[in-house]
Write a structure and sequence with these properties.
The protein has 18 helices and 7 strands.
Length: about 425
């Protein structure tokens, strides 16, 4: 290819959009996505038909992409993925540079989701599910056995909703955002309501409450639930989010990517952890003291749920924000006292702080919700974050999330087994 050069005094080599796309291994439209995200500079030459790009800058970006695909992070060999969504730093976390706890204190879950997806706030926005999508999702969920867990219900609802959307394979940003704004309320609407008298309108937290509790919701409880959704919307590359990005890297549509996240979320060390804390809180309330309950947990070889977090040496900021709101929830006093008793009992030997799973457990116990409610809240909340990461991944080189295996088995060739 012939080098393109600029005017005298600027001898750097310039590449066309086509050449840049070929070097990066992406489509031309993805090149402009790099430009819009500030990862690549462009310049339109006088009299030229299109933009040109600095060859050295393009080669540096290609090298970063190759390093990322090979799993090299430059700090220990762990997989590192560039992202502009969430930063966790010094016992705080930020959504697009803004303190996440402050966002959750001032904005609804839907508004925070929009901020995560687009970098813009849309005050008062609510998500609405299409009737056809809700109908097919409800039929699929209703056909499941009665004992089916919430994450399985949500996963089936997501798959059913996908079958009702002929545009699901359109991975353009506008199309994926349209999917996100309808999928999340569809997931909530597909869950069987606990209370007969409920309305599928208004803020998402109000609609979700009717699926989790038979109690009449007061303003403080609804605010706590909405804030919990906002606090949990994303948390960097958690296991479920990594699964979503792998699916998006293979260009799975948004419904399939969310389904991947839901599959990972069900593990007891991830989304289901609050259910363990919920049951422990009930035991403490039943026995009147945390000491025997903690002793039984430790005797059984289990770690105490709801305590500590590998990313926060100090206090989990999500727990701190949610506990502050729970003080205003009527009837939450006993569960809050039980949580404090658990923390104080375990702190005699190990200085562990409460994490968001314990705060979620206080919310679900004091609201008369089942032990699986925290898992449901977690899954619904995190769906918005998964969509944000899928959108980001769609703008990257396809199939880059492909680490190489380190084979440690028997050296070939081996004889055929008999």
């Amino acid at each position: 290819m012939r080098d393109q050069e600029t005017a005298p005094g600027h001898p750097e080599r310039r590449l066309s959009t086509k050449e840049t796309a070929e070097l990066l291994g992406v489509k031309p439209e993805t090149v402009y996505a790099y430009v819009s995200r500030g990862q690549l500079g462009s310049r339109r030459e006088p009299g030229g038909r299109g933009s040109t790009f600095d060859a050295k800058e393009v080669e540096a970006l290609a090298l970063r992409n190759r390093r990322e695909s090979s799993g090299s992070s430059g700090s220990g060999g762990e997989l590192s993925v560039r992202t502009r969504i969430t930063l966790i730093e010094k016992d705080r976390y930020f959504f697009r540079g803004v303190d996440a706890t402050e966002l959750a204190a001032r904005h609804s879950y839907e508004e925070i989701a929009e901020w995560l997806w687009t970098g813009e706030l849309r005050p008062g926005i609510t998500f609405t599910a299409p009737r056809a999508s809700v109908a097919v999702a409800r039929r699929a969920v209703d056909a499941l056995p009665e004992h089916t867990g919430p994450t399985d219900r949500l996963r089936v609802a997501a798959i059913a909703a996908a079958t009702a959307d002929p545009l699901r394979f359109d991975l353009s940003e506008d199309a994926v955002l349209g999917t996100a704004r309808t999928l999340i309320p569809t997931l909530v609407a597909a869950l069987p309501p606990v209370r007969r008298a409920h309305r599928d309108e208004g803020p998402l937290a109000h609609r979700l409450w009717a699926r989790l509790s038979g109690q009449t919701a007061d303003e403080a409880s609804l605010r706590a639930l909405d804030t919990a959704l906002g606090l949990l919307v994303d948390h960097d590359l958690a296991a479920s989010t990594l699964a979503v990005r792998v699916a998006a890297s293979a260009r799975a549509h948004a419904y399939a990517a969310v389904s991947s996240g839901l599959g990972v979320l069900e593990g007891p060390l991830h989304g289901a952890a609050s259910g363990l804390a919920h049951r422990m809180l009930l035991d403490v309330l039943d026995q009147g003291s945390a000491a025997p309950v903690v002793a039984d947990e430790l005797r059984s070889g289990r770690r105490i749920p709801g305590l500590g977090h590998r990313l926060y040496p100090g206090e989990d900021p999500r727990a701190r924000a949610l506990f502050a709101l729970l003080k205003d929830v009527p009837g939450a006093g006993p569960a809050l006292a039980a949580a404090r008793d658990i923390v104080a009992t375990t702190a005699r030997h190990t200085p562990l702080h409460a994490n968001v799973d314990l705060a979620l457990a206080v919310l679900t116990v004091s609201s008369g919700m089942p032990s699986t409610a925290g898992e449901t809240i977690f899954a619904v909340a995190r769906t918005a974050g998964w969509i944000a990461h899928a959108l980001e991944e769609y703008g990257e080189r396809p199939l880059r999330m492909r680490p190489s295996g380190h084979y440690v088995g028997q050296k070939p060739p081996q004889p055929l087994p008999e």
